[in-house]
Amino acid sequence: MQYQEIEIKLYVKNIQDIADLLRSKKAQLIQPRTHELNLRFDTVNGELTKNGRLLRLRKDRTALLTYKGQGQIHQGARIRTEIQTIVADFEATKAILEQLGYQVNLIYEKYRAEYEWQGTHISLDEMPYGNFVEIEGLNPEHIHLVCNDLGLNWEHRIPWSYAELFYKICEKEQIPPNALTFDAFKDRKIILEDYGIFPATE
Q1: Residue 13 has what DSSP assignment?
Q2: Is 81 exposed, middle or buried (0-12, 13-18, 19+ CB in 10 A)?
Q3: Residues 6+ apart with CB under 8 A from 62
Q4: For residues 176 and 88, which has the higher predicted lDDT (pLDDT)?
Q5: Which of 30, 57, 130, 170 would staple 177 via disulfide (CB 3.0–4.6 Å)?
């Protein structure tokens, strides 16, 4: 089994427009719009984050434990090791990780809908600071083609993870860097263009 993630992220103003476009193209809906709660774990000294690695426990329709290795950009796409598995009990898994010495260093949430189209996995993500399209495929060339077919501007792809972008926002907006939640952003208007991130659609 190949434990590898190859993907790009793009910022869009209107996520519903992309959902409508995918439906018009007969994309297969894998998961309807679903709320996610994510717990990101690290050691007391933050060793995972320092080394660009991630240990995450997610709760949506199921519970999912994920490890991601250090990412690198290749031909415009972000590539990293990704190993994940469904777990039976979210709270028990959280307790196991804490007993092993890990602690939650970031809580983040989003709404996500997932589609399969043209051999790629496409996620429509509503984050507290904006809406994004994530396209995952077998190689950067294929992702690039799908991006073009959807009318998305390849040149506006985002080189950072959601957490990395969040930390940049926290530094500028003076937000505590531990809760990427809708409640924490409810009275804030984030202009992503201020961070060099521009919409992939007109």
Answers
A1: S
A2: middle
A3: 86
A4: 88
A5: 170
Instruction: Report the Cα 37 to chain-centroid distance in Å.
Output: 12
Domains of the chain plus CATH, in order, are 4-186 (2.40.320.10)
Residue keyed to tokens 């991630």: 54
C-alpha 18/C-alpha 12 separation (Å) is: 8
- Following DSSP, what letter does each residue of 20-47 receive, concatenated? HHHHHTTPEEEEEEEEEEEEEEE-TT-H
Q: Can you give the pLDDT at residue 175?
A: 84
**Residue from 88, 98, 90 nearest 41 by CA:** 98
- Mean pLDDT for 126-153 is 97
Backbone angles phi, psi at 59, to 5 degrees: -125, 120
Task: Evaluate if residue 81 carries a pLDDT over 80.
Answer: yes
Average pLDDT over residues 62-71: 96
CA angle 129, 80, 175 (to 5 degrees): 25
